[in-house]
Design a protein that fits this description.
The chain is of the alpha+beta class and about 525 residues long. It is built from 21 helices and 10 strands. Strands 1, 3, 4, 6, 7 and 10 form a 6-stranded antiparallel beta sheet that branches. The protein has a 4-stranded antiparallel beta sheet with strand order 2-5-9-8, with no helix packed on it. Helix 7 packs antiparallel against helix 8 and helix 14 packs antiparallel against helix 19.
Length: about 525
C-alpha cells in the first residue's frame, strides 16, 4: 500500500512539474479544448433531450384530459376546450368577438414547474401567439388565463403549448422583461431581480423548439459560464502555483456534478462570487466590496462574502467597516431601484431562499428532507425557522473563531458555505457549483481534502443518478448518502479550524505571514 502511494505521489509530482513548465497561454488553450470536448456534446444532447421532454403540445392525443403527465404528476387541461378538428381546437367567432383562454392545473405546487402556457392560433390564414398569465392559486389548484379580441369573423383554430422546467421559466421571465413589463406580476418569479438581466443574451438567441429552442441557447450560455469560472480560477490563483491553479480549474470543469447541472444558472452565480473574492485576494478591498454588493441582487449567496472583510485586521476597524458599508450601500441601492420599479414582490426571495415560505418544497439534497422520508413525515413537520436560526448561530460561531484565531479569509468563507449548504433545507444539486471553486484551493493542496472532495462529488452524483432512474432506492440509503455529504463538509470545517498546516498554507501563499501577524 505504501509503495502504491509513493508511485501515485511520484506521478502527481511529475504531472505538476510538467504543468509548471508549460506557458500560461498553453494551459489556457488546454482548458478551452477540454471544455469544447466535454461541454459542446453535453449541451447538444441535453438541450435536445430536454426540449423533447418538456415542450408539451395540446391536443397531442384525442383528448388532452387523457394525457398522463408522468414527469410532474399534475393533471392539466384547457378549460375552454371545444371540439377538436385535426390537431387544433376550433371555435366559430363573429366580428369583434372577445375570447377568453383558460388553463387549469390540479395537484400542482411550485416545485412542479410550469414555465409558460401559450395559445397558438390561426384565423383566416393569420397566425399568432397569446401568452396566458398566472391569475389564481387556491391550494393545489392553479389557473392561467388571457383574453383577446378578434376583429375578423371566421373559424378560430388554436392549441395550447405548455413549457415546463426552469429554462422555460427563465425564458418567460426575460421575455416579459424585454417587453418592459413587471416580471413579478406576469410570471411566477422567486429569485432576486438582477439575475434576470443575465438571461437576456440566451433569450435573444432562442431558436425554434424543433431546433432546441430556449433549452439549446440557455444550456450553451450556462456552459460558457462554466468556462469563464474555470479561466477565472486559473488566472486568479496562478501566482500561488500554476500547476495547482490549473488543477483547480480542471477539477471544477470535469467533475460530473458540474457537467450534469449545466441546465441551471449557478455557474453565473459562482462567477459573480469569484470576482469579489479574487479582488479581495489582490488586496483590492474597495472594488471587491462593490462587486460583492452587486452579487447579492444576482443571488443572495454573495452575502457570505461581507463578513470576510471584517477579518482583515491589518486594515484597521475604520477601513473594514467602510468596505462593508460600501457593499451594503450598493446592494441597497439596487434593491431600492427594483422595489420602486416592480414593487414589494421583488424582495419575496427572502422568504423563498430562507426556506420558510409554505409553498416551497425541500431541496433534493436536503439532509432534513431525506430523513423525513425515512420516517414518512411531511415537510410541514420540519421547524424550518428553528433550523435557520441554528445555521445562523453556527455561522456566527465560525466567524468568532476565525476572528479570534486569525483564520484567513478564503478558509473562513469556505467554512461558512460548507455549513450552510450542508444544513440548508432547500439545497439542490446545482448549488454545489457555487461551493466547488472555494473548496478547490484546499483540495489540490492536501491529500485528505482531495479525497474528501472526490467523495463529495461521487456521492452527490450517485444520488443524482438514483433520483433520475426508475430503480427503487430505499429512503434510508439516500438519507445515509446525504448524511455522508454533510459529514464530509463538516470535516472540511473541522480541519480548517484545527489543522495549522492547512490554514498556514493560505497565510503563507496568499496573505503573507508578516501581514497577518502585523
Amino acid at each position: 500500500m505504501e509503495r502504491s502511494w509513493e508511485k501515485l505521489r511520484s506521478l502527481f509530482e511529475s504531472l505538476t512539474s510538467r504543468l509548471e513548465s508549460l506557458s500560461f497561454k498553453k494551459l489556457i488553450l488546454i482548458l478551452i479544448i477540454v471544455w469544447l470536448l466535454l461541454y459542446l456534446p453535453a449541451t447538444f444532447f441535453l438541450s435536445i433531450g430536454q426540449s423533447e421532454e418538456y415542450y408539451a403540445y395540446y391536443p397531442e392525443a384525442a383528448n388532452p384530459m387523457d394525457f398522463d403527465n408522468k414527469d410532474y404528476n399534475v393533471t392539466t387541461l384547457p378549460q375552454s376546450m371545444e371540439e377538436a378538428a385535426g390537431e387544433r381546437f376550433v371555435k366559430p367567432i363573429q366580428n369583434r368577438t372577445t375570447v377568453e383562454f383558460n388553463w387549469t392545473a390540479w395537484d400542482y405546487d411550485s416545485s412542479r414547474h410550469i414555465g409558460r402556457i401559450n395559445v397558438y392560433y390561426e384565423l383566416n390564414g393569420t397566425e399568432g401567439v397569446i401568452r396566458l398569465k398566472n391569475v389564481h392559486r387556491a391550494g393545489d389548484v392553479t389557473s392561467w388565463a388571457a383574453e383577446k379580441t378578434f376583429k375578423d369573423e371566421g373559424t378560430l383554430k388554436y392549441y395550447y403549448r405548455v413549457d415546463k422546467d426552469d429554462i422555460s421559466i427563465f425564458h418567460r421571465r426575460t421575455s416579459v422583461l424585454l417587453e418592459g413589463k413587471n416580471i413579478y406580476e406576469e410570471v411566477r418569479t422567486g429569485p432576486p431581480p438582477l439575475i434576470h438581466l443575465f438571461f437576456i443574451p440566451p433569450t435573444l438567441m432562442t431558436l425554434s423548439p424543433e431546433a432546441g429552442g430556449a433549452y439549446l441557447s440557455f444550456i450553451l450560455y450556462f456552459s460558457i459560464f462554466i468556462l469563464f469560472d474555470s479561466l477565472l480560477l486559473f488566472s486568479g490563483f496562478k501566482e500561488f502555483g500554476k500547476s495547482k491553479a490549473f488543477l483547480m480549474s480542471l477539477l471544477f470543469m470535469v467533475n460530473p456534478v458540474t457537467i450534469f447541472n449545466i441546465h441551471q444558472d449557478e455557474a453565473i452565480v459562482a462567477f459573480t462570487m469569484l470576482l469579489p473574492l479574487l479582488f479581495l485576494i489582490k488586496k483590492r478591498d474597495k472594488i471587491s466590496s462593490i462587486l460583492a454588493g452587486i452579487s447579492i441582487p444576482v443571488k443572495i449567496w454573495g452575502g457570505f462574502i461581507f463578513p470576510i472583510y471584517l477579518l482583515r485586521k491589518e486594515l484597521g476597524l475604520k477601513k473594514r467597516l467602510k468596505h462593508v458599508f460600501s457593499g451594503v450601500l450598493v446592494t441597497s441601492s439596487i434593491f431600492l431601484f427594483f422595489y420602486l420599479l416592480w414593487g414589494s414582490n421583488s424582495i419575496w426571495f427572502l422568504s423563498q431562499y430562507s426556506g420558510t415560505t409554505e409553498v416551497m418544497g425541500l431541496g433534493p439534497l436536503s439532509f432534513w428532507g431525506r430523513w423525513l422520508d425515512v420516517f414518512s413525515m411531511s415537510s410541514q413537520d420540519l421547524p424550518r425557522t428553528s433550523i435557520l436560526v441554528c445555521i445562523g448561530a453556527l455561522e456566527l460561531l465560525i466567524l468568532y473563531l476565525a476572528y479570534k484565531k486569525d483564520r484567513p479569509p478564503l478558509m473562513t468563507l469556505t467554512s461558512l458555505l460548507c455549513v450552510f449548504f450542508g444544513l440548508y433545507v432547500k439545497i439542490h444539486w446545482d448549488y454545489y457549483i457555487i461551493l466547488f471553486p472555494f473548496l478547490l484551493y484546499f483540495t489540490v493542496r492536501d491529500k485528505r481534502l482531495f479525497f474528501a472532495f472526490v467523495s463529495i462529488v461521487s456521492t452527490i452524483y450517485l444520488m443524482m443518478f438514483f433520483a433520475s432512474t426508475s430503480f427503487f432506492v430505499p429512503s434510508i440509503l439516500m438519507a445515509l448518502l446525504n448524511t455522508l455529504v454533510l459529514f464530509l463538509l463538516l470535516y472540511h470545517v473541522f480541519l480548517f479550524m484545527r489543522d495549522k498546516k492547512i490554514y498556514r498554507m493560505e497565510l503563507d501563499e496568499i496573505w503573507g505571514r508578516k501581514e497577518v501577524e502585523a
